[in-house]
Amino acid sequence: MKLPNIFYKRKSDTHKGDYGYVFVLGGSVGLTGAVCLCAQAALRIGAGLVRVGVPKSLNNIFEIKLTEVMSLPLEEEMGYLSIKAFDQIKDFVKEVDVIALGCGAGRYLSVQKLFLKLLTEIDKPIVLDADGINALVDNLEILKKRKSKNLVLTPHLGEFSRLLKLDTEKIKQKRKELVKDFSFRYNLVLVLKGNRSLVSNGKEIFENKTGNPGMATAGTGDVLTGIISGLIAQGLNIFKAAKLGVYLHGLAGDLAAKEKTQSCLIASDIIEHLPVAIKSVPR
After folding, report:
1. Structural domain includes residue 6
2. pLDDT per residue over 108-151, tens digit each?
3. Which of 9, 78, 112, 204 is deepest in the core (most CB within 10 A)?
4. Is residue 4 part of a domain?
């Protein structure tokens, strides 16, 4: 896969604002790591600015965990993001280029209401993962009412099964057909994660051949969400960002597995190996 120009030499006269602003919205009690992995991956892939929107009672945790990433404490209920945070978020996202929505957010009802409202009222590119996808399980009609024209969904097989209300074995039998049909029906980019991840915009389909079983570990999906979001922030269209993001994510995982072994690989190893993955792709 050919790398875009953003990975080559940057102009001398430049600043962080030239490389995009990612807003990561998620986090809840016991799930702070997901947001951190997503944010760090977005920075590592080249985004100029990253801010995390998190429940305000957990903000101190994020301030300690994240060094280069800024935080935005938001209204919450019991350690989960609240629908009461909507106005603050709506005002803030005017500044950003892309929203990574759902990592570690939990399935609390107020979180789901917040995410559905954001989908119907915010016109920004959105990468929807994890509990953002879970909020859609009985609300798929929201996808046709959404405001954003640029939406990427990144379900794993279990999440895709819940969206379609189909058994995972049936999905495996016709993965490409179902992924392409879903993308076309809802006019979005779908990334079905797993062995040979699939990416479709409803017209084309890309089957990824990088990656290994060592990546079947907690947090790797959050890293992928951050990578795709960081690429979109830097100006790539959502289909190209999703394809390249999946490819580099898997390649970094392969390089990490060579050094760490598949059994010892953890999600942060993928972030660590992104630079060497990028350098290993022929120009």
Report:
1. no
2. 999 999 999 999 999 999 999 999 999 999 999 999 999 999 99
3. 112
4. no
